Amino acid sequence: MVPEHAISNMLCRVFGWNVDAQADSIIGSQKLAHYAKVPPRAFLRAQLLATVIQVLITIVANEVLTHSFDDLCSPDQDNRFTCPFPNALYTATLVWGVVGPRRIFGTLYPWLKWSFLIGTIAGFPLYYLRFFAMKKFPFVKNFNPIMFLAGMSWWNSGYNLSYFIPGFEVSFIFMYFIRRRYLTWWTKYNFVLSAALSAGVALCAVLVFCTLQVTNVSMPWWGKTVSGAGVDGAATPLYTVPEGTTFGPTHWE
Fold it and tell me: Cβ atoms within 10 A of the Cβ of 37, count?
C-alpha cells in the first residue's frame, strides 16, 4: 500500500500481526480452559484481569530493560538479551518496507512469486490423494501441508534448538504415547496437567527471582547451563561483507 516506506510497513506489521496473534492466544487459552473444565465466565474474568496486570508489568519491564542494560539487543549482550524477535521484525521491515515487494518479486527473486500459484494448486492433489491413495499411503490422512509449512517457519525465529526440542518431546509423550495407551487418564487429566505446568513455570519464575536473583545467589547445574553451551548457546557471528561487494545484485530498477 505504501511501497518503499519502512515505518508504514512496520506499523502495519505490528498492529496487524500483534492483534491477530494476541486474539489467537486468548482463544487458545480459552480452548485449553474448556478442555480442563474451567467455568468459561470465571476464566474470562481471569483473562481480563491478567491482561491488565500484564500490560502494566510489561511497560515497567521494558522501561527497566531499556535504561538498565548496556548493549541491549546486540548479539554479544552479556545477559543474553539479544532480542531475536525485534531483530527479525527489523529485518522484515527492511526487506518489505525499504526494498519493497516490487523489487523482491520483480528483480531480486523473480521466481518467488510462483509460490503463490504453487500453493493454490498444491491443495487439489493432496485433497484427492486422501481418497485414492489412503490405503497405500496412510500417513496422508494426518498430513496437513499448512501446519507442516507453518511449523517449519518457527525454526528461523532466532531461538536455538534447546527452545523447541523439550516442547516437542513432551508433546509427543502426551499426545501420542499416553493418548494411545491410556486414553481414560489422558481424557481426564491431560489438559489439567498442561494448565498446571504453565502456571507452575510462571510461579517458579517469580519464586526464583525473589529468592535467588534478588539475593545474587548462583546455583549452576547442567539443566541451567546446557542451553548456553556449544554452538547453539554462542552468539551467531555476523558475516562482514567485504568492501566493494553486496548481498544479491549490485543494483535494481
Answer: 9
Domain span holding position 212: 160-235
In a domain, 176, yes or no: yes
In a domain, 97, yes or no: no
Cα 119 to chain centroid distance, Å, stands at 23
State the amino acid at position 76 in one-letter form: D
229 is a domain residue: yes
Q: Please list the alpha-helical segments (H only) found in the chain.
A: 6-35, 40-68, 84-93, 101-103, 114-132, 145-153, 161-172, 179-181, 183-208, 222-225, 230-233
Give the distance from CA 137 to its chain's centroid: 31
pTM comes to 0.60
Block means of pLDDT (10 residues each) for the chain, 253 residues, are 81 84 87 86 91 91 86 79 80 84 83 87 80 72 76 65 78 91 91 86 88 80 74 65 74 59
In a domain, 219, yes or no: yes
Q: Are 84 and 158 in contact (CB under 8 A)?
A: yes
Cα 92 to Cα 99: distance, rounded to the nearest angstrom = 10
Number of domains in the chain: 1
> What Cα–Cα distance (Å) separates residue 211 from each residue in 56, 57, 80, 215, 219?
23, 19, 21, 7, 12
